[in-house]
Records
---
Amino acid sequence: MIDLKRNSKKEPIRATGLRSRACSFYSPNQKEDFKISRGRFFNFLTCKRCFYLDRVKGLDPPGTPGWTLNETTDLLLKKEFDYCRERQIPHRLFIENQLSNLVPFDHPEIDNWRDSLHKGLMLRYKNTNIILTGGVDDIWQHNISKQLIVVDYKSQAKLGRLDKQDYLEDPYHQGYKIQMDFYAYLLIGMGFDVHKTSYFLVCNAKRDQQEFKKRMNFDEYLVPYNWNIDWIENKVDEMVDLMNSCQLPSQNLSCKNCAYSEQYAKVISNKFKGDSEGIQGSLF
Ligand code: SF4
């Protein structure tokens, strides 16, 4: 993926590969608070080296384009659920799924908790300077037990009907479960009573329609998932230890980006052998 660095006027500018603000990365053993989002924690689980280069060494990795269609389903769902939240009534999906004891959770912080870029759920990790954060899509509440239910909206476009078991077992969806575990961990740490079952609200765009005509139709599914937070603290401890160390961890050997970078480095160093001015930097 080619990602050009641009300024606020969208003009291409020189990319340095480094973050410019020192406060956006961590110095081993620093005393000041430092936020680690759910996404960064997931990066740690996927590749410790990339996490370290990003969070501790301040490398600025290429970005990915925004998922504007997915974001639009999230936005419209949010409006539907907010309508029910204000009135404390069950959403139509609750009634269709025999969950009419649920209502969207009404809490003064709900907008902040859903703001994954700037706020999100927040929890100081044990007595460290690490603040764990995560922007949740929604939280519902059982109106008798008052327990909270963690919710994540997902949009996709696959042929046929969704099988809930297959959905959870799909290797590409393992990160979704981690996401849910992490949100449950944060909410429990913040003092809330969280119901064991969370839900993925999956919107599947129907690909078997005969025409577009300015409409895309979706099926909706509520996929229940029983979260598990038992594993989280061991991994966060590992992550904090890594952040406070000065050793570069090993890479994920399945990563195509690293494999590409290594091949790139070989090609460039052969081409410019003896001409060090021609090479713009070294990789790892
Ligand atoms: S293997 Fe390399 S490029 Fe891939 S995630 Fe890890 S450090 Fe980053």
---
Amino acid sequence: MDLSRAMGWLPSDQYITSPRAKPAALHAWHEPAYVEALQRIEAAQETLPDDLERFGIGSVSNPVFPEIFSRPATAAGGAILAGELLARGGVVYNPAGGTHHGMPSRANGFCYLNDPALAMLSLRHHGVRRIAYVDIDAHHCDGVAVGFAGDPDCLMISVHEEGLWPRTGLIEDDAGGNAINLPVPRGFNDAEMAHVREALILPKVAAFQPDAIVFLCGADGVEDDPLAHLSLTNNAHWDLLRGLMALDAPRLLVLGGGGYNPWTVGRLWTGVWGVLNGYTPEAYVTPDAEEVLRALTFHGNRRGRNPPEHWFNTLRDAPQEGGAIREQVRQRVEYLRQPQGMHVLRQASARV
Ligand SMILES: [Zn+2]
């Protein structure tokens, strides 16, 4: 948001402060006992002996931190408000949202609440029926999948790195008929994403005729992210966003997600806001924006020691040269394009 403002792209009348969700609003998807535990742990800054087993809190991936309730509850408040704001149509961007691993009664993968699920339930509450959920975070959206498996009015598409935690979202898993899961190999590149976009994501979403598109635009699939092993540039994310916008669904909610390099996250998600508003993140950034980028730090990672100059003075990554579409990516896309593909594969593996 600082970067968007420094670019001159975020006038105050386009910005709404996210309210902190009340516990009762969170009960739309989360167990009251779990919500209570988050509040108690925030107040005490420590867990009880069974919080780890019962709620998954206190592990390496779901640590106690000072705002363990209020921070996720604020992102969730934005998600719930987005459902209300979108009742009559429009576009909302909630970059602090995207915690797609959260479970109804458990923290999971540094996600304490599941704001995408709460956003979709809020949309439903405000009369929006058919929702296309598109998730290109490097990790599979296991929490959202739990929430919407088998829902014929929800199409869930996830593109994620194969073999990466949480290792769910296998290509055979259609969640009871409404999910398209595309695990992609390490090194997944812009040309491959363009193929996935044109041959799979956009046609599937268009055919579904959604009343709303929810796009989780995780930033951990880019080459410079330290956690995943994909090789996208931020052009891939923006191009998919442009494609989704062109489908003319009456409502679009864009969420953040994962992302573990502060420069790639800031540049990508500022570019998302630019694309949503018709700005092209092509040229060099403004001096104010460069100041924001130069002030970032990334301790404890080799990428933070000698950041390349373009992380300071551009938003857009250089277009990727020479990425080939690997045969396995083509085959998986082809398989998921077929409505009966699932069936054939299951029979085939049964024979083995
Ligand atoms: Zn992720």
